[in-house]
Amino acid sequence: MQQLLGDLSYVRVYLDDVQVLSHSSDEHMRHLEVVFGRLLDAGLIYLGFLVTAEGKRLLAKKVDAILRLSKPRNIRDLRRFIGMINYYKDMWKGRSETLAPLTALTSIKRPF
What we know:
The protein is of the alpha+beta class. It has 5 helices and 5 strands, in the order H-E-E-H-E-E-E-H-H-H. The N and C termini lie far apart (about 45 Å). The mean pLDDT is about 90. This is Retrotransposon nucleocapsid protein. It comes from Phytophthora palmivora.
C-alpha cells in the first residue's frame, strides 16, 4: 500500500489500512477517485474478492479450490463445504433454496 499510495500527500498508510484526508467533501471525492483508481489499476483483492470498476468478482483460484473438493463423506465434511461456499453468499442468487437439501442432511435427526 505504501508503494502504491505513499506519494499522495493526503493519504496515510498503516500496514494495509488507508486513510484519506481532505478539507472538503468535493476535495475528498477527488482524492477518493485517485486512490480507488490506483487500487483498481493494481488489481486490488479484498477479503478474497477482486475489486473492479463493475464491483467485486470471485477469484478464479477460490472457485477452483471449491470445484476440486472431494465429495463430502460425513456431516463434518458437508458442513465444511457449506461453510466454504456460504462465504460467497452475496454472489449467488437463490443460494438458500439450492442448498436446502444439503443443509437438511446436516441435521442429527437425519442419517447421512
